Amino acid sequence: MNSPLATGTRSYRRFHPAPGARSRLVCFPHAGGAAGTYTALSKELAPDTEVLGVQYPGRQDRAAEKGVGDIHELAAGVVEELVPLLDDRPLALFGHSMGALVAYETARLLEHEHGAPAAMLFASGRRAPSRRREGERKIHLKDDQGLVEELRALGGTDERLLAEPALLEVILPPVRADYRAVETYRHRPGPEPRCPFTVLVGDEDPRTTMEEVDDWRLHTDGACTVEVFPGGHFFVLDRTQEIAALVSARLRGLAPTA
What are the sequence ranges of the domains in the chain? Predict the structure, then answer.
């Protein structure tokens, strides 16, 4: 099970090498997030499941690259580097908020363009891909101060980063690109993934309703279950152990791919 990750890739970070892992989980961060968001989850799942955190362009060690303001383009870049890493282990995808959309589009590309279907998709903190809200704010068009205020209101971003002007010059461009990607996303008709979905949501998340979450079942030919956790939009940061237990239970027993 030697992996090309031993020499590194642009898009993936492996926090806890697990050469004997029975499955692999690719994790997609929220808007403005980075691969390191999933370090704690990786620790909980090792050594049975190897976690690969996706590092989007424009942040941290990819800061020299321009942020990508399109969900479909982000997914295509993820898939391009993921296909050579595939082996006989079941592959699952986990995405939170914007990451749920990137994970979903990644699943579509893997299955219908590369013949490599994912074994399972975990979509967290995001309404279904076909769900739109009329008159929704265009946060990516706000000035820098407006973008900072939005990040403060939503939570999930270290306040020390938002208070440092020099850091904001580095942080805000990829954040703006991420918001552009989410706010301009439109679901494209076409074949849906066949893998089962598990949808996670916080019971106090202002960004989703249960009706919007339930519509994820329209986007898979497999089973779709919804799991509700205490908390707001970033409940995932406070519920790592519970989420790891859920993921482990769902991945247990998956058969190796042919």
Answer: 4-251
Q: What is the pLDDT of residues 188-242, one digit of tens each?
A: 999 999 999 999 999 999 888 999 999 999 999 999 999 999 999 999 999 999 9
Closest C-alpha to 243, from 255, 227, 257: 227
pLDDT (0 to 100) of residue 206: 86
3-state secondary structure at position 223: coil
Using a 10 angstrom Cβ sphere, with 0-12 exposed, 13-18 middle and 19 or more buried, the burial of residue 138 is exposed
SS3 content of the chain, % helix, strand, coil (to 5): 45, 15, 40
- How is residue 225 written in tokens? 């279950």
Residue in the structure block whose two tokens are 């279904």: 128
Classify 4-251 by CATH class: alpha beta
In whole angstroms, how far apart are CA 237 and each of 70, 93, 94, 112, 243? 25, 18, 14, 32, 10
Residues with a known catalytic role: 97, 233
Strand runs labelled E in the chain? 12-14, 23-28, 49-54, 91-96, 120-124, 197-202, 224-229
Q: Which two tokens stand for residue 137?
A: 């704010």
Residues in the chain where the model's pLDDT stays below 50: 1-4, 6-7
